[in-house]
Amino acid sequence: MVISDAHTGLRKALETCFPGTPWQRCQFHLQQNAMSHIPKVSMRAEVADDIRSVLNAPDRQEADRLLKIRIEKYRSSAPDLATWLEENVPQSLTVFQAPAAHRRMLRTTNMVERLNREIKKRAKIASIFPNPESALRLVAAILMETSEQWLDGKRYLPAEQTLS
After folding, report:
1. 142 three-class SS
2. Exposure string for 101-128, b = 16+ CB within 10 A, e = fewer
3. I need a surface site. Which of 12, 106, 118, 156 has the fewest CB within 10 A?
4. Across the chain, where does the E strand assignment appear?
């Protein structure tokens, strides 16, 4: 499974390089994007709660049921939002293919963002790289270290369960 925001170029690259791989739209970024489709500022909290209720459903069937209810709720008062919900929220429900124990970790891009912060922190310490290859070696070493930690020590996701 690949987790990212809805950047069109990134989506096309994923389809080309990893055909058939499930894609999960980051739920945090989805919530942020929804705010631009709300006609009144006073509706923000209500819409955020409604989207959150769909994303926090116990299973995909319940999420789909709640989404239909939310779409109908906003069909007359915020038609742009209703259309946007219908087209975009299902992209953030791919996570329901994963075991329940993994879902919390796979809902957003937090895992990738944390790894990127670690790379940036270590690159800042090194400060100057004599050539691109030296920077690549540092990044590769950080990624290998992270992989080893996940295999031997603290696991981000339990390995006993896999995607269905």
Report:
1. helix
2. ebeeebbbbeeeeeeeeebeeeeeeeee
3. 12
4. 2-4, 23-25
